[in-house]
Task: structure prediction
Amino acid sequence: MTPVLEVDSIRTRLGGQLLHDGVGFKVNRGEIVALIGGSGTGKTVLLRECIGLLRPTEGRIRLLGEDLWTLAPADLDALRCRFGVLFQEGALFSSLTVAENVGAPLREHTGLRVGLRDEVVAMKIRLAGLPAEAAHKRPAELSGGMKKRAALARALALEPEMLFLDEPTSGLDPISARAFDELLRTLCDSLGLTALLTTHDLDTLWGLVDRVVVLHDGRVIADGPVPEVARVDHDWIRSYFSAHVQEKRNGNGIGG
Amino acid sequence: MTASGPFSLEQTATGWELRLFGDWRLANLAGLDAALAGHAWPEGGGLGLDGSALTGLDSAGLMLIHNRLKEAGIAWSTLALSGFDPERQALIRLVVDRLSAAAPEKKPRRGFIAGIGHGVSQAWRELPGMLTLLGQISEGLVDLVRRPASFRMREFFVQLSAVCIGALPIVAMMTFLIGVVFAYLLGIQIEKYGANIFIVDGVSLAIARELSPMLVAILVAGRSGAAFTAQIGAMKVTEEIDAIATLGLSPVKVLVLPRLLAIVVAMPLLAFFGDLMGVLGAAVIAASQLDITFHTFFMRMHDVLPFSTVTYGLSKTPAFAVAIAFIACRNGFAVSRDARSVGERTTATVVASLMAVIMINALFAILDPSLK
Result:
């Protein structure tokens, strides 16, 4: 398998504090990989370094065959058309409707005539599982789950090869969150996407991802399929996964 | 078989076979669309779709062939697919399934007449909100008279400082310079008749009666009116207004009344300050260009400027202030929960309050008994 993303010995110093001290992992084609870690371990920072928003202090990131931080600005922009990003709050343009949001990257980067562009936009909106009437609403009129779907439709607009998702299910109720996980799985499998996501949601971890990378104290302390990582003997990992067991037990208690 | 275009259509023993060639992806979509445009498709079913010669296929390319066949009356389910590998079959299943869902409707475009109608009905819909705020302000004022202790002194003085003291430098500069320009232009004319001393009559009347109150009102509308709308609007966006209400406080009493009273108190003070600075600017020009000393200037002003003219000018300003504060607060509360709305409402505040100030000024001029 060919790695789509290679993160190699990344060191990040932010505000005088060493956030990452030699972080490295790979994401292979077609995989969905989750980045987990306690609050403040720099998951989101690492994600921002992978998408070219924040330069790491040291280290190398190879994305889609390109050495991200040695690219000229124009080449970096070209590379950016090949991956999609879903920001935590959706980051939809609040002055545009959903359809205009999804159409924005198409308008900027393809020379499609308006009618054809509208067809592509309508298809992407339905791919993301949004109801037809959502297309002409503004982001402020959408629920949290719909916002995420609209943002996903925009991230998919340019037929990306890779998706980056920052906390895709945060702020969603459990039912919407599972539905969103399912949507991601379907899209990744059918469109042949590779995905890297950060999450706090244990159900996403068990239900969606192929592999999990655990960040702790500026290093990767575990990297592997979820059941394997859950068995790793490490304080933080044990308490992280036992929180899940606790949650399940409580859930069963109420249910029974 | 010719493979010149992105596809070929040929007759086989069982019917027709549509073969796709090359790269059917978003990057080539415009070219593919042009190649498909106006192509005739065989009727009567039995169409096969062969994807073995494809080098690339994504959801956009797939959507294109799906939609074009559909427009020609060929349902996807009647196609016999061949030569697609499992990955592409998964893509086809997903995209075709999602395309069968209801398509978003085209946004209806409004014509010119419909646009006017929409604008009028939008404006009409503002009315209940404005009346509600007017009622709430009146109720708040009545309550204030009954229980003066409930007045938010702190917020009032914060606002008074922002509206009044913060505006002093710019008011001073504006009215001083207008006094200078006015006296200079009037002086050129007046000098021709040797009537230099009458500069005092003209300048003091104009500044005290019209120029200073109007300039100050325009300045306050742009400066404080816009600030009120942006402050209240930003609080609306971050749900702070709702938080105030759930704490059992009245947003009108907490936010609107202190601002309204601050601006009503500040405006006459600023206008009087504007009177002084404007006259000072005129006196400087009179002394330097028209040989009228400061002493002569102010003695003459004492004789020709009745006190009632000054009070008339100042009496207009609380009316301006009420209009500006009301429009600004109303627009602040009308902000909806997105970033663009704050900007739109702030613009609306400045435009509407300038119009209101000019109309109120005209009304005062018409109704003034001293001119009849």
Notes: The CA atoms of residues 21 and 54 of chain B lie 5 Å apart. The two ends of chain B are 98 Å apart (CA to CA). Chain B has two domains: 7-99, 116-367.
